[in-house]
Amino acid sequence: MRRKTYETSLLKVKKLIKIIPVWTLSVLATLIVIYLSLASEPAGAGLFHFPHSDKVMHGILYCVLTMVYLCDYVRHHLPHHTRFDVELAFAAGAATFGGLLEIAQLVMENGRSYELLDWGADAAGAAIGYLLMKLWLMKEWRHYLLRHKHHYRHRRRHRHHS
Q1: Crossing angle of the two packed helices 84-107 and 24-38, in degrees rounded to 10
Q2: Looking at residue 135, what DSSP letter applies?
Q3: Structural domain spans, the chain
Q4: What is the model's pTM?
Q5: Residue ranges, the chain, pLDDT below 70
Q6: pLDDT at 110
Q7: Alpha-carbon distance 105 to 127, whole Å?
Q8: What is the pLDDT of residue 160?
Q9: Rounded CA gap, 162 and 156, in Å?
């Protein structure tokens, strides 16, 4: 029974991925990170209480954010292979984004505080997300999209017949 539910859920996710325009998930993930970083009392803020839970949450958040960026990049770049420097730029961009949001917390008076260690956790999470994608998931994701003839732009010139 559990396996059937899992397979049904997985099928729904795959169908959803096919209809969502490229970069939509990246935009949504970015907006969620902005909300969680800058809202004075974001929903679910007090869910986890254990030593260094804040740093762990920062790491997880930026790990997922980087993975979403890279998944969208792979989708956008099909059927071609991705470039290492661009992949790395997405991970560095996520880490930099974390630093900018920490600075925004410093400037804004919303009850949030700037912490250099939070930025370090953001950068570590982005690095882990990059490594997970690069060493494990990116190839599988690309193969899945190609195998299922996922929507991608053909990058060939069209000849006009007169």
Answers
A1: 30
A2: I
A3: 21-31+53-147
A4: 0.77
A5: 1-4, 6-7, 10, 14, 42-48, 50, 148-162
A6: 73
A7: 23
A8: 47
A9: 19
Helix (H, G, I), strand (E, B) or coil at 65: helix
Q: Where are the beta strands (DSSP E) in the chain?
A: none
The residue among 38, 42, 28 whose CA lies nearest residue 102 is 38
Residue with tokens 């325009």: 21
- Indicate the helix (H) or strand (E) that contains 71: helix 53-77
CA atoms in the 13 A half-sphere facing the CB of 59: 11
| CA 135 – CA 83 distance, rounded (Å) | 14
Structure tokens at 131: 């490594």
What six digits make up the tokens of 101? 């949001």
Report residue 116 as tokens.
């250099």
Sequence-distant (6+) residues with CB within 8 A of 38 are 101, 104, 105, 108, 110, 112
Helix (H) or strand (E) holding 33: helix 24-38
Residue labelled with tokens 């030593």: 51
Token pair 């630093």 in the structure block, residue: 99
